Amino acid sequence: MVPMTPSSQSPANPPARDPEVSAGCTSSSASASSWPRDAFDDVPEEGARVGAHRALDAPAPRVTRQIAGLLLAGAVALAVGAAAYLLGGNSEAAPGAASGASASPSQSQSQSQEATESATPTQEAEPTVEPDASVQVGVYNAAEVDGAAGTTAQDLSSAGWTVSATDDWGVGVEQSVVYYADDEEQAQAVADHLGIEQVASDEAVGYPIVVVIGSDLAEDGA
Fold first, then answer.
1. Are residues 97 and 141 in the same domain?
2. 70: in domain
3. Is the residue at 97 inside a domain?
4. Which residue in 57, 79, 107, 130 has the fewest CB atoms around it within 10 Å?
5. Angle at CA 214, nearest 5°, toward 208 and 215?
6. What is the Cα–Cα distance from 214 to 171, expressed in whole angstroms?
7. Binning pLDDT at 50, 70 and 90, where does residue 137 land?
């Protein structure tokens, strides 16, 4: 067996490189060297770090904080607005309820007053009869009290009636009475003025109206 010599292991003339391959490698090296240097260009060739990639551009921390602040402010404003709306609705409803509650007693009082007025009949005032000076009046004392007829006659004259006579009745009576011939209206006016309850018709009396003073009127100061 013939031992191999160095000349037999490698060809004396190595094959020439393909010009196109050489040109491509040169172009790739030149193209790679045209990028600006960064941290990835300084990685040691024998380092333990593998699989490092260029990260996408992340937003700056300041911009992130601004966005978070805007979102938080919006949430706070929304919460405050909702609370104000709820509180405002309750405050507006409360006066209405209070007003309705305060109006109820007044309405009940008004209805009660109307019911009382409808139940109580209206009393019409009786027309006042003015004294007629043309009507002659006779006054008689039946109380057996001196001066009773004169005092009553003076009272009637001051009121506007014409007193034509004063005398004693002849017999004593307890209850005073006013007699009239035909003018009941004036007789009733005389009785009301003197406070006499009894008024009676009697055509036999000597004057249109005759007042008989009893002990009841004399005791009252007639």
1. no
2. yes
3. yes
4. 57
5. 165
6. 10
7. very high
Phi/psi zone of residue 21: left (φ > 0), alpha (ψ -120 to 50 degrees), beta?
alpha
pTM over 0.85: no
pLDDT of residue 1: 45
**DSSP H or E stretch at residue 32:** helix 19-32
**Residues 155, 190 contacting (CB under 8 angstroms):** no
Asked whether residue 26 is assigned to any structural domain, the reply reads no
- C-alpha distance from residue 90 to each of 39, 93, 95, 101 (Å): 65, 5, 9, 16
The CATH number assigned to the domain holding 200 equals: 3.30.70.2390
Q: Same structural domain for residues 143 and 213? A: yes
- Chain-centroid distance of CA 206 in Å reads 74
Contact 211, 189 (CB under 8 A): no
Residue 116: band (very low, low, confident or very high) from pLDDT cuts 50, 70, 90: low
> Rounded to an integer, what distance in angstroms lies between the CA atom of residue 219 and that of residue 222?
7
The whole domain housing 143 covers 136-219
Over the range 142-171, which residues count as b (16 or more CB within 10 Å of their CB) and which as e? Answer: bbebeebbebbbeebeeeebbbeebeebee
